[in-house]
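Researcher: Let's try something more involved. This one mixes different molecule types, so please make sure each is placed in the same coordinate frame as the others.
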Amino acid sequence: MISENNSNLFELITENKNLVFIDAKGDKSFHLNEILLPVESISEQSRSLVFLYLDTNIDALAVYFSFLKSDHALVLLSDSIDIKLKENLEKEYEPTIIYDANRETPSGYQPKEVLGDVVHLELFVNENFNTEIHDNIKILLSTSGTTGSPKLVKLSADNILQNALSICDYLPINSKDVTPINLPLHYSYGLSVLHSNALLSGTIVCGLPDVLDRNFWKLLSKYGFSSIAGVPFIYEMLNRIGFLKKEYPSLKYISQAGGNLSKNIKEAFNNYCLQRDINFFVMYGQTEATARISYVPTSELKNNITSIGIPIKNGKITIDKETEELLYSGPNVFGGYATGRADLSIWEDIKELKTGDLAYKDASGFYHIKGRLKRIVKVFGNRVNLDEIEAFIKSSLNTSLLACTGIDDKIILIAHCNNTIDEPKLKKLIFETYKIQGSAIKFKFFEVLPVNKNDKIDYKAISASFLGA
Amino acid sequence: MSNHKKLENAFVSILEIDATSINDDLKYQSIPEWDSINHMFLITELENVFDIEIDSEDIIEIKSFADAKTILTKYGVAF
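Model: All components are placed in one shared frame. Result:
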């Protein structure tokens, strides 16, 4: 049971007396108060900007919860971002405190040892930085994974609390659950798994290898994982490595979000789950809505396999009559973007989130996505802005005769008029800058790039020509 | 082209790394390029290059360049 008279996520989590963390690396278990670190005394400033470069080990969870408890505002980032991109972000936002287990002390910062009961780590502090932050801002997330884009989504303490409560309303989480942390914490879906399970679950397991590691499956059976969360690519991997041919007696439910999973794989997983009394939750959301917007009630999935379902508790979906864009309102809608330090002093009161997705509502009240308004593709669960990639390649190659488009959320197609283009070199550059795997990038040569009546690049014609080739 | 060379080319083209950085000790997750996503593309590339179908169990057994040779040997690819 979640108490109703507490309005702070961390306080509510401390009320979950069943909560235990298992560190799979050391096979040890801890209560939340054992892993908390004394971060209050680390800086003279009680509210400042903190950069946390996180993996999914026990240290990362300890540092995250310790700062969640504090008054600081936290930027959650992938620990595997390229060092140059990390430095760019820090130069722009001037965080007072940095946690990055993989780095020597950044210039201008002082290393400070933090000793907890079981976790010992080092933070970097620069008291000269005191970035002004609006009172509402608690967590800032990037929408683009490991690309190191300075564009951040501003979320309040209430946003994260309300979204976690709405998720707890439909997921069958209870105190007997053993939940693996198998998604990154800087990713809104991964963070939502941590929050909702910290509120109601029994055991949370961290320090896990990825699903392509045999040990993940040994640990699943050893600890008895009751759920697995995955983006479409994880389900494609699970399908390919024979997940559906085996039995997992401890599994109670699986969830999928982070983009559209192809219908045949979704059906295969749903059939597997229906035969075994496992619940399969297909969900939809955006970082701008903290994470979750809608879900398909598990008993309805078979008949609504391509739907994004119905809005979460306290959320409301409307469809813009003119543009057909899916609009969402609810207590989990963000307070605007930050692209630089100055934006942190502002909180925008956004009544309706414009998702950029085109949708319709069917006769039974279920919503369906039918396209996108913006030039965005989701490659491996990460959002990629095609205009940004296009501008980057144009400037790298010093050409204007180039266009990028997305194919089925799997491939970024680079259409170009340069038959001497060095494809491997360009792929390498894109991987280094955006962490987009080269296998997801295809090239197609055109004598002349197709244009429409207004002389704008005709991206549909480019896709059609690639798919027809 | 020798099978060793074919295997090396598959690693070079999927992981986009230099052939000089490939040796038997090159391990899954030891470099940023060999992540879970590229691992799946690598498996597909090996299937295409050697015209075989790799069993689901073997996908997670390929944890290094040396493992790739061991597993491929099972499918009749000699090194």
